[in-house]
């Protein structure tokens, strides 16, 4: 079984590639607001994914040690998503809100796709 760090490392590579595409789209197309929203949402989504990985490792250590419950950082990730949406709402001439929300979900979509491919390949 792969460790969380290996999965996170692979996800970062794919997400950085997508971010590069979004930056190219922002620089060379007329869809600047959409690409900027995707960039903003993806950056906040990457941050949320990093928090999730860090908290899951802490949760695993707490369960293994027989200690009490550990939080998975849901409130922190929710607040981060709200912050991304607030930025997009406060600067509508720079960021598209819908593409920001889609960008927030990209790391989770990549994770789901990665896990489906992993289980398809290994079963």
UniProtKB/TrEMBL annotation:
Pfam families: ATP-synt_I
Keyword Membrane in record: yes
Membrane topology: Multi-pass membrane protein
Protein name per the record: ATP synthase protein I
Residues passing through the membrane, by range: 12-28, 34-53, 74-91, 97-118
Residues in coiled coil: none
Compartments, record wording: Cell membrane
Entry keyword set: Cell membrane, Membrane, Transmembrane, Transmembrane helix
GO CC annotations on file: plasma membrane
Main location: membrane
């Amino acid at each position: 079984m792969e460790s969380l760090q290996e999965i996170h490392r692979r996800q970062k590579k794919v997400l950085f590639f997508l971010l590069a595409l979004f930056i190219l789209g922002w620089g060379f197309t007329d869809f600047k607001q959409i690409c900027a929203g995707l960039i903003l949402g993806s950056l906040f989504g990457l941050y949320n994914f990093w928090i999730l990985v860090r908290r899951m490792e802490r949760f695993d250590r707490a369960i293994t040690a027989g200690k009490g419950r550990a939080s998975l950082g849901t409130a922190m990730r929710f607040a981060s998503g709200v912050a991304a949406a607030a930025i997009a709402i406060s600067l509508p001439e720079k960021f598209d809100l819908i593409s920001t929300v889609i960008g927030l979900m990209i790391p989770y979509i990549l994770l789901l796709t990665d896990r489906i491919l992993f289980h398809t390949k290994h079963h």
